[in-house]
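In this section we turn from sequence analysis to structure. A common task in structural bioinformatics is to predict how a protein folds when a small molecule is present, because the ligand can shape the pocket around it. The inputs are simple: the amino acid sequence and a SMILES string for the ligand, here NAP. Study the lines below before reading on.
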Amino acid sequence: MPKTRVLVTGITGFLGPYAAAALRARGCDVVTAARSGGDAPVDLTAPGMVAAVLEALAPDFVLHLAAMARLADCEQDPGRAARTNARLPGELAERLGDRLLHVSTDLVFDGRGAPYDEGAAAAPLSVYGCSKAEGEERALRHGGRVVRLPLLFGPDARGRGASASLRHALGQGRPVALFTNEYRTPLHAADAARGLAELVPLRAGPRLVHLPGPERCSRWEFGRRLCAAHGLGAALLQPCECQDPQRPRDVSLAGAFPARRSLEQMLADA
Ligand SMILES: NC(=O)c1ccc[n+]([C@@H]2O[C@H](COP(=O)([O-])OP(=O)(O)OC[C@H]3O[C@@H](n4cnc5c(N)ncnc54)[C@H](OP(=O)(O)O)[C@@H]3O)[C@@H](O)[C@H]2O)c1
């Protein structure tokens, strides 16, 4: 029997390699795309590109991770954020329907009603959050499926993600300011990837799914616990309060797919 072929977009990003590895571990044939790498090194927002890539790679499913995922980039270029995060998922869903699993974020919420389960209404505060919320809406309208992820962490050679960036700064002896009043449900990228790989072929499952981390914790607490897990001195961690109105204070997720490892186990692996 031929293997299920899955196209993973955003392969050069933080989550991409974790997702590809998790799908391969489940026996899938993985093909990849991103602007700067993968089997299709293309800008998927360019006219005609989605159709061309789907025809060339002929996937059974698409796990769509590609995004403009940095808040500051989206504030600087809302037009590109709209093309990438809002319109591209809609275009993919128009062609793929429920063969699309589109990845979104806890930052579609405003932070005033945590914990958020799948029934909660999106109310984004930032350009990033607005563009991702519109992407969800367009994907769902055309029959696609959506998974919301919380703050991700885990090893990354390029220092991306919540733990690798922190460890990188500490390794260079730089102080790190961490918010005491911003709460998330952080999840190891390998656990997120395993969850996504399970969900990819489940066309009959729920259309909107949350993959929360095991615990709610502040950025400050996360940093302290990461240091404790690895015997790192925490003297360079500096507690501070977030005042930015575009950063929601508590976007803790809840949902039907709870994490399978404790935060301590995940941090030991980060
Ligand atoms: N990281 C987190 O903590 C987190 C939390 C919740 C949700 N998410 C969501 O998870 C997904 C993956 O996040 P990530 O952290 O891996 O993001 P990332 O590291 O910023 O990677 C983004 C990826 O998207 C690709 N991309 C961007 N624009 C593209 C375009 N026009 N055409 C083709 N590829 C394009 C990038 O390719 P190039 O490298 O070539 O530009 C890169 O591979 C995103 O949808 C994000 O919103 C992430």
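The radius of gyration is 18 Å. As an exercise, try to locate the residues that line the NAP site and compare them with your own expectations.
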